Hints:
Residues 16-188 form the Glycosyltransferase subfamily 4-like N-terminal domain. One of its GO terms (molecular function) is glycosyltransferase activity. The chain contains 18 helices and 14 strands. By secondary structure, it is of the alpha/beta class. Strands 3-4-2-1-5-6-7-8 form an eight-stranded mixed beta sheet, sandwiched between helices. It has a six-stranded parallel beta sheet with strand order 11-10-9-12-13-14, sandwiched between helices. The longest helix is centred in the first third of the chain and has 21 residues, at 71-91. It starts with a strand and ends in an 11-residue tail after the last helix.
Amino acid sequence: MRILHVLDHSLPMHSGYTFRTRAILKAQGALGWQVRGVTGLRHTAQGPDVEQAEGLTFHRTRGTAGGPPLVREWREVALLADRIVDVAREWQPDVLHAHSPALDGLAAVQAGKRLGLPVVYEIRAFWEDAAVGNGTGREGSLKYNLTRALEDEVVRSAGHVVTICQGLKDDLVARGYTADRITLMPNGVDLALFGTPAAPDPTLRAELELGDGPVIGFIGSFYDYEGLDDLIAAMPLLLDLQPQARLLLVGGGPVAEALQAQAQACPAAHAIRFVGRVPHDQVERYYALADIMAYPRKHSRLTDLVTPLKPLEAMAQGKLVAASDVGGHRELMTHGETGTLFAPDDPAACATALAGLIDARAGWDSMRRAARTHVEQAHDWARNVQRYEAVYQSLLGPSGRRQHRAA
């Protein structure tokens, strides 16, 4: 079986989006399927028209899409659709598998009609909600509603829809789409790449002046919806209960400067460390320093509907996880068994939960084992990728292959 994945961007760029893509393509390749990717104009890294990255093949779309809003996006879709058609006529895939945003899905639908190929559309988030969370959009605005309408059009037109979590599927069903046209493909971890924890580096710990007490960590992108301002606000309260605790923040993003200013003015400034962005191959060194990974996401439509990847990576690394009680986190963990949940948008609740988890050291190993087992059983890509086979076969028929036509 040959699957051509239609993508916003890909490796060698690094993001949560590209890491999920890598995991999917690697896992599908391990099943013996042939896979390639084609990216749109939003893949901005320099490189050849056909690029190899970590053993995977990606085709690039070239050109520019100028003009006013809507016209610009329409031209962007047209260029990507043309590129999909060119690659497909040469490589002869059985399925076009498009991944959100909806512009990719629309391009795949247009190309699929021209090629006579079935289209799977995979939704990783509703991008109108992601724009609100990132501070680049406003709920109920014209752009928000147009993006939602485009998503609806792609969902109606695709042969089958995949969502990364139950929250997204439930929302689509509430809009009137049939549940049996929507398959759940949960976020996962490639345990072959991310499943063996690194040993703590005492030299790095000393350089960061973390002391001997418990370390609370966050590794990821600094967006407002991640609630890191609440985590910083929780630190003075946590230090009243656990004076040796330290907070380690690794990453960067739009609110990084504001967070640093907040931390400098905070009574707990001496206990907060900002590392900035680190190379992806160095991330495990920082995970190894943390006892607890904290994910204090704020309550919003985005965080209620979408499951994040980072808590699963932390569980795979054998870390304790404390997270805000929003829908996306509840779908990933069970309070008191595989992690600790606390009220969102509430620094005091965050501090109390962290202090209680630190005090409960006798149960740490049990919770770590339960969390790791949960990842292995429900979120290991080597297992979950097999769900795609039923999706593809539902579109291709019992043979699992389309009858190729001459280009």
